[in-house]
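Suppose you are handed only these lines of text.
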Amino acid sequence: MKCIRCSETAVYRRVYSGELLCATCFSSSIVMKVAKTISQYSMIEYGDAIAVGVSGGKDSLTLLYILNILSKKHNNRLIAITIDEGISNYREESLAIASEFSKALGVEHRIFSYKELFNNTLDEMLIIRDTNSLKLSSCSICGTFRRRALDIAASKVDADVLATAHNLDDYVQTFFMNVFAGDIDRIGFMHPKPIRYARGLRKIKPLISIYENEIIFYAMINNIPFQADQCPYMNESIRNDIRRFLNSLEKEHAGIKYNMFNSILKISEMIKGNEKHKKCNICNMDSSMDICSACKMKMLVTKI
Ligand SMILES: [Zn+2]
Ligand SMILES: [Zn+2]
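From them, the structure of the protein bound to zinc ion can be written out as follows.
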């Protein structure tokens, strides 16, 4: 079978569009899609310093790789940022992958840890949670601190933009999680055009138009190494249930996730602007409430 763009041997069939693509044309289609998302939503400007959250998984290393290709044309400085949550026997491997891969690309790499930023590792926080019998999932604790850690890290490296690697599957799952939680404000926040916060940092997700399985294939054919092990604490059961549900729908109806993605763009466009913007009374960071979720979480699961 031949590639529909250049007549080389095809290695990939894009199920939802029927396209047959060779490795080169598949890779350039992904880079083009990412570039289109970036320009469509004015995510990055000429000369911006871009902090890229790099966990060591397939999505974040692929994001770093693609931004490294695109940034050369637009005079953007990249800084890879890895957050070390403090998860024994798991984070060590991905830290090494993230640091070696950044080095190979010639990108500066910085590590920030929960221990230094919040006084406790995630392992320690989970012991505090269990000692106090708190009903909090490890992912909700970790996610709250990871978002805050990335904000702090981006400002410490003087970044204009913080890029994270959420893919189309993550994006659609998050939408359903917000709907099921009754959290309509958060759907407004999902709109991809970055909000300009007071201190100037824009948060962007350049991979939201790319299917997760296409990121895996892109990483494979471009020899991007990644940590395949899942986090030992991964137990966010609702997200897993939604992932399974969406994957089974996609199997029967190719392209349904992409249609959903396009619907979310329109829905979030209608809702955005209604979000509340305040400053946290404790840490003075942007928050939709008087006390931000990171400060609330700190009171529950950290010891100072
Ligand atoms: Zn081709
Ligand atoms: Zn706060």
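What can we learn from it? Strands lie at 12-14, 19-21, 49-53, 77-84, 108-113, 161-163, 202-204, 278-279, 286-287. The chain has a mean pLDDT of 92.
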